[in-house]
Amino acid sequence: MRISTSQIYANGVNSMLSQQAKLSKTQLQVATGQKILTPSDDPVGTVRSLELTRAKEKTEQYERNGNLLDSRLRLEESIVNNSIDVLQRVRELSIQANNATQSNESRQSIASEMRQQLDNLLSYANTKDSSGHFIFAGYQEGSSPFSKTTSGYVYNGDDGQRQLQVGPARSLPDGDPGSEVFMNILNGNGKFQTATNPTNTGGAVIDAGTVTDLSQFNRESFTIRFVSDTQYEVLDAGGAVVSSAAYQDGGDIAAGGMSVKIKGPAAAGDEFSIAPAQRQDLFSMVEALAVSLETPRNSNSGRALRNSEINNAISNIDQAMDHLINKQTGIGSRLQSLERQSDINAGASLQIAENLSLVNDLDYAEAISRFSQQQAALQAAQQAFSKVQGLSLFNYL
């Protein structure tokens, strides 16, 4: 068989180029730390790598959502806690103002501080997050959720609650609308509320009362009317007398599963009402108390009316504090759930990273050994080509 010089040269060059290509690929693998440089290197491994990369990106997004959620919830928790502190101070001022040693002037000073606390509450309710969004406005986070008008305090947001996905099958709300936090609070004792008729002439004061028999409690309205300073009767919503008894200062008066106490001297014609609790906003509760303290009362009946109003206000504030504490508990539960989910996400990220490493990462010991072998093979091919190149007959003529 005849072997031409051009064929010898071609085979030698092809051998060297093949070894150079293998060596170059190994060098690139060592430089990048990746054993799959192109899909053709490992089609199955490439598909698996893409799946794991997508799973990694999703987990990273869950972690980013979790960080945002944690920031929003901690800010809301702080605001609710500050609001509870404000209400506690308002309650202290109410008890201070309910002391008989206070004058109209001193109560007005107390009312002045109470209005400052009210401004603090309104400021807390209109808090923005680090992005400039109002946290209590629901979906209307670009506008101030609460404002004061001539008719009272108005909620300008909505009841929307944005959900953030923090896991493959887990979403958590990033806050609460202001309507659930600062509005819709049951007044009175949470079941019913009491009130004193402003036209009363006696000095009797009614307390907030309690529910003593749930089986008889049907959220009915009643009126306690004094027919004399020693005798009263209880009327239902239709004006029918349901009971009557002799008045005992500080004694219990029962009606419809409810019980109230009236203390102090009553006069004929005095009336006190019992009505189902109504939902009220936190701001109007404090506002009504401040107005009561700012109003001068110089008669026994006026002072008794103020005492009843303060008692009712304290009961309202207690309900508002309980409401905010429940909200605070809910926020804390969400933070705990988020913390557990973050731990799960961290474990998933570690597992995905390990699997990606198994698919993509280069075994440096094997690659360096292969590199040395390929380098030796290239040198051998080059030396062989050099020897074959010198076998031409023209070198001997």
From TrEMBL:
Query: Ranges for the Flagellin N-terminal domain?
Result: 3-140
Signal peptide span = none
Q: Give the subcellular location.
A: Bacterial flagellum; Secreted
Known Pfam families for this protein?
Answer: Flagellin_C (PF00700), Flagellin_N (PF00669), flgK_1st_1 (PF21158)
Q: Which domain of life is it from?
A: Bacteria
Flagellar hook-associated protein 1 D2-like domain location is: 196-276
For this UniProt record, the keywords arranged alphabetically read as follows: Bacterial flagellum, Cell projection, Cilium, Flagellum, Secreted
Under InterPro entries, the record lists: Flagell_FlgL (IPR013384), Flagellin (IPR001492), Flagellin_C (IPR046358), Flagellin_N (IPR001029), FlgK_D2-like (IPR049119)
Q: Name where it mostly resides.
A: other
Q: Where is the Flagellin C-terminal domain?
A: 314-397
In the record, the note on similarity to other proteins reads: Belongs to the bacterial flagellin family.
What is the name of this protein?
Flagellar hook-associated protein FlgL
Which organism was this protein described from?
Zhongshania guokunii
Q: Its gene?
A: flgL
